Amino acid sequence: MDCIFCKIIAGEIPSSKVYEDEKILAFNDINPMAPVHVLVIPKIHIPSCDGINEENSCFVKHIFEKIPEIAKTAGITNGYRVITNCGEDAKQSVKHLHFHILGGRSLPENMG
Ligand code: 5GP
Ligand code: ZN
C-alpha cells in the first residue's frame, strides 16, 4: 500500500521517534507547527476517523491512554492540543489516521 505512515511504521522511511510500542508509534512532524509537534499513529492502516470501528477502536483507545506520557516525553510541561483532521474540508493530507500533539508555547485560540 502506498501510504507514507505505513512506510514509517515498516522502517522504510526514517522518522524521529518519540514513543513506540506494539500498537502505536509517535514521531516528530517533519513540518512542525509548534515547538513540539508530534504525530501519534496506530500500527494498522486506518484511513481516518471515519474508519474507526468496533474492531480497531482498541488502537485509538491505546493512543489516548498513552498521549499524556508521549506529551511529557516530548517535553511538554504546560498543556497541549490534540487534533485529527478527517477528510477534505479538514485538509487531511495523509490518509492514515493520526493525532497531532501540539505544544511548547501558548497556542492560538482560533481553531478554524
Ligand atoms: P494532516 O494534514 O494529514 O492532518 O497531517 C499530516 C502531517 O504529516 C503534516 O503535519 C505533515 O507535516 C506530516 N508529514 C507528512 N509526511 C511526513 C513524513 O514523511 N514524515 C513526518 N515525520 N511527517 C510527515
Ligand atoms: Zn497507512
CATH topology tier name: HIT family, subunit A
Instruction: Give the helix level as a range of percent.
Output: 10-25%
Oligomer: single chain
Tell me the strand percentage band. Answer: 15-25%
Global shape:
globular
Bound ligand species: guanosine-5'-monophosphate, zinc ion
CATH superfamily: HIT-like
- Compute the average pLDDT: 97
Note poorly predicted spans.
Answer: none
The tally of strands reads 5
Structural class: alpha+beta
In order across it, which strands form the biggest sheet? 1-2-3-5-4
Distance between the termini: 32 Å
| H and E order | HEEEHEE
Task: Specify the CATH architecture.
Answer: 2-Layer Sandwich
Give a quick account of the main beta sheet: strands, pairing sense, barrel closure: 5 strands, antiparallel
| Rg, Å, rounded | 13 Å
**Tally of separate helices:** 2
Pick out its properties.
2 helices, binds zinc ion, HIT family, subunit A, alpha+beta, binds guanosine-5'-monophosphate, about 110 residues, 5-stranded antiparallel beta sheet, single chain, 5 strands
